Amino acid sequence: MGKRKHNSAEQRKEAQKTQYFAKLNNAPTSPRKMRLLADMIRGVEVNRALAMLRFSTKEASVRLEKLLRSAISNWEQKTEKKAEDGNLYVSAISVDSARMLKRLRTAPQGRGYRIRKRSHHVTLFVDSKTINENQE
After folding, report:
1. Please, is 95 exposed, middle or buried when counting C-beta atoms within 10 Å of its C-beta (0-12, 13-18, 19+)?
2. In Å, how far are 88, 110, 132 from 136, measured between CA atoms?
3. Terminal CA-to-CA distance of the chain, rounded, Å?
4. What is the Cα–Cα distance from 59 to 64, expressed in whole angstroms?
């Protein structure tokens, strides 16, 4: 590995030590369905977001709730504090499309219609609010 590449890798590792996140890869629902929930909890305090996901009727909310709990656990391990002590909130969440399974459905007159079974990746970041952010 070259020196420049090594230095940039070290900088990336240092930056990740101060970020608290969890990732969900290849979840088998369409990205649009997950984005509806992601938009709902973006920027919201963690306990409120968990309550919103728990009482949501959408099927994707179960996966997102589990992911949020994982991000909270990662924050607790890195900072060695309890989540109740910190003023945690969902700082960023992104939903990207992942692999797509392509299937054929039989159609009239010898044709075939394409079915695209979509999946997605979710990356969820949590952070604690500082006193300076509360004053602004």
Report:
1. buried
2. 17, 65, 7
3. 45
4. 10
pLDDT at 17: 80
Q: If one looks up domain 20-131 in CATH, what number appears?
A: 3.90.470.10
Q: Among 108, 109, 123, 100, which residue's Cα sits nearest to residue 21?
A: 123
> Could you tell me the pLDDT band of residue 106, with boundaries at 50, 70 and 90?
very high
Domain boundaries, the chain: 20-131
pLDDT in tens, 55-75: 999 999 999 999 999 999 999
Residue carrying the six token digits 């990746």: 121
pTM to 2 decimals?
0.83
